[in-house]
Every structure is written in C-alpha cells, then in structure tokens.
Request: fold
Amino acid sequence: MGEKRSTGFYILTAIFIAFLVFLYGPVITIGILSFQGPTGGLTFPMQGTSLHWFQELFRTQMVGDIWGSFQRSIILGLTVMVITVIFSVGAGMAYRKKFFGSTPLFYLIIASLVIPSILVSLGVGLIFSQLGWEVHWSTSGLGAQLTWTLPFGILIMFAVFNRFDKAYEEAGRDLGAGPVQVFRLIVLPIIAPSLIGVALFGFTLSYDEFARTLLTSGSRNTLPLEIFGMTTNVTTPVIYALGTLTTLFSLLIILFFLTFFVLSQRRRNKKGSDAGKGLV
Amino acid sequence: MAVLQRNISSLLLASPVILVLSAFIIVPIILITAVSFWGATEFSIYPAFLFDNYEFLFTSEVTYRVFFRTLYFAFLVWLITLVIGFTVAYYLAFFVHSLTWQIICFLLCTIPFWTSNIIRMISWIPFLGRNGLANQSLIEMGIVNEPVEWLLYSEFSVCLAFVHLYTLFMVVPIFNTMMRIDKSLIEAARDAGASSTQILVNVIIPLCKPGIMIGSIFVVALVMGDFITVRFMSGSQIANMGRLISNDISLLQYPSACATAVVLLATVVIMISIMLRFVDIRKEL
Reply:
C-alpha cells in the first residue's frame, strides 16, 4: 500500500468513485427530472424540458403551504443554531474540568443522540397534551430538535477542547486578565472557526429534521414535514422541483458556512500569533 | 472551597444543556414509561396501572416478527455500512496523499449528511421504480425481459436507502481514527516484512476499533429507531418497531404506543451500552 499505481490503488479509487455515484446519483437524477416537460411523469423518459414544475411550486393553492413552512423552517433553524452554539460552548467549557454529575450528564448527552427519534416526538407530544399546552413548532418543536442538535454540538466542543492548549489562557491570566477577559479575548477567538462548524450542524440538522418534529410541530408544518405530506398525495414532478430547490438551498448554506470557516481559520492563522516576529 | 466553586461554575455552564435534556429527554421517557401502564378508550387515555398494553404486546405474534425484523435490518445495514464505510475511509486515509484532495473527498462524503433525508429517499423512486432507470437499463442490456418488481417497495429498497443514508456515519469516525494512527507504526510493520494485507489486518483494523465502534453505535441506533425510511421505502408494506409505534400514535392508542416504545428503548439501550463498553467516546474525539 502507499505506493501509487499499485492495483490496490486503482481498485480502491474505482470503489470510491462508485460510492460517490451511489451517494449523489439519485439526487442528481431528481434534479434532472424536475425539469421534466409539462406532460412528463415521475420517471424517465423526459417529455421535453421546462420550468413548468418550478412555476407550479409558486402557485400556493396547488400544493399546500410550502412557503409558510419554508419560513418556519428557516426561523426554527436559526433559533436552534444560536441556542446550540451557546449551550454547546457552555457545556464544552464546563467539561474542561471534572464536575459533580459530569459522568451521568455525559451519558444523558449520548442517550439524547441514540434514543429513537419517534420516542422524543411521542414523549414531548404527551407532555404537552397532558399539561394542556398546545404543541407548536417554536416551543415543543424547538425543544425536540435541540435534543438532536445539542449532542452533536457538544461532541464537537469536546473535540475542540481536547486539542486546546491551556498555555494561552495561563499566559493571559499571568498578564492579569480576569475570567471573562480570558474567555472573550483568548478562548473565543481560538475556538471561533469550530463554532462555525457547530452552527452548520445546528442549522442544517434542524432544517432537515423530520422524526423529532413530527408530533411536536402542531398544526403548522416545517418544510420536511410538508414535503413528506406531499409524497402521499402529489404524484407529479412538482415534488422533484421542491426537492431540487431545497437541496440547492442546503448546498448554498453548507457552502456559506464552509467559506466562512476557511476565512476565519485563515484570519486566525494570520493574526493569531506574532511569536518570533518582534525581536529584531 | 475551591473545589466547590469549581463545581458550581461548571454546573452553571452546563445548566442550560441539563435543563433542555431533562425537559425533552428525561421527562418524556418517564412519561412514556408511565403512560405505557395507562388505559385507553377509543377517544382518550386515562391514568391507571394496567399491564394490558404489555400483555397485548407480548402475546401478539406480530410483535415478535416485527421485533426480529427490526434486529435483522439493524444487523444487515450495520454489516454493509461497515464494509463500505471502512473501505472508503481506508482509501481516504491511506491512498489519498495530498491534504487538499483528502479534505475535498472527505467533504464530498459528508455533505449529504447536511441535506434532507426525505429528499434523499424520494430520489430513489425514479431510479428503482417499475419504469425506473434500473429496470430500463436491465431490459436494454437484455438481462431481464420484464421489469423487476422487487427493486422498489421491498426489503431491498429499504436496506438500500438505509445504506445510502447512514454509511457516512461509519466513514467519518473510522476515517478519524485512521488519521490518528502513527504512520511510523505502519512503516515499522512494513520494515518487518508485513504485506499490505497483513498491515491492514494486524495493524490498521485493530487500531481502528474505536472508530468502528462509534460508527456502529450510530448506525445501529438510527436503524433500530427508524420508522420513516421503512415506511417510505417499503411503501408501507414492511413493519419495524418504529412503525408499530407510529401506527398506534396515528390511531391515538398512546398507551399501546408507549409500551412498544419502552420495549424498543430497552433494546436500544442494552445494545448501545454493550457497545459503549468497548470504546471511550470522550477520548476518541
């Protein structure tokens, strides 16, 4: 292994490319089919090409409340994102030292990740109905989604602080910085690029979340719920058009976060250390 | 005193997470467990301490069939994702030498994770359907004479979708552990005369066990708890535990749904705790 041009290398490259085709092929297929002509169906062959099904999407009376659900998903996603970042940083900071209850809390975090989503949906729905509260995407839905995004955020923060050099903080403290200053001026700038990663998880996992939101969003659907509803009663390529648009939107979001991440990493590397530059 | 202060400040920092997870994980589980003993009429549920729901569950032959079907899916999908995930991670970690390409390839493998699972399921339809791409090409190539029916809405399509959705949960942790393997260990093995296969079997695979374990935990938990992939990709023809629960919910039979949920939860917890014994997740991050 290692040596290029070995047969193993070619076989594995072929497998990897096949894997990528497997991963992206279907989505590209519906991307193409969403341009199906007005008389076309859900499968190939294409009956001409058109933007017919995209136009259809904008006729609200045709296919449910797509734009309302899109707006709700965006607002919910942003809320989940902000909360996930702040709470995960808090938990990450807490776990830098052993504290009372840290082990049970760790297992609770893992449990939150592996527990079947339908149980969260069912349980949260039951709490609200027993208390006589109405389930709503911004309350019960928000809470249920946080049980999915927080564990990812916290695990990322664990990884970040595992690699964190404490010497920076000590240097700050030796120079007289208080705890708040140490956090704001030293810790935060160093972990900032990773926080973009946490934000990416927070937003996209919420934006695409289905099972945990199913029984907790109330009468107003989020986008994934709306799309799933469409699968049972929409039998035209309009659903592909919606799928294509929302996937493109996800890709834009991912690209935005990744660019932001690369830029902030660069900025950190450039401004982070002037060691060895001052003594001439 | 200092110890107390340290505890308090850590607890304060972690308190938002503690609050959220208590309210939306612990309390729901407690309530589900409680409601699993309640009674139900056609329209409402009432507090009680009955074993009816469990009795019905454990005396029904359907439960056992569905339970083993769920385990069967978990095992099959675990095995397939492990083989594919390991191979892909192995290629990325040891055969892609430029860091830039490694990052690009790794991102290509992870991007679908941040897009919609529902869309990714829907996107199999034009591929697997009766007049789908797969059937068209099979007929064109003369392999079959008429469309193959078992491609969509079958056990096959359910497994395919699972593998499609969850393989990256294997790739990422395994790749992560592979990247941490000290390259000098591999060189030492090669200097000592080991072949590529021997290095793979005797050095790399043992050192990858934590990553394999973390990936397995994800895949097993996700497949065991799934209800939507099975429902959608089987065209509602195949049942698993999650679907039993969701069917009961749609019939407003909450106590019965809760009893099934408790059984499913117990199964998942037992499986995951066994797997957690083999890996210290916090150390592997």
Remarks:
- Residues 72-284 of chain B form a domain with the MetI-like fold fold (CATH 1.10.3720.10).
- Residues 189 and 198 of chain B are 9 Å apart (CA to CA).
- Chain B touches chain A through 89 residues (CB under 8 Å).
- Chain B has a mean pLDDT of 90.
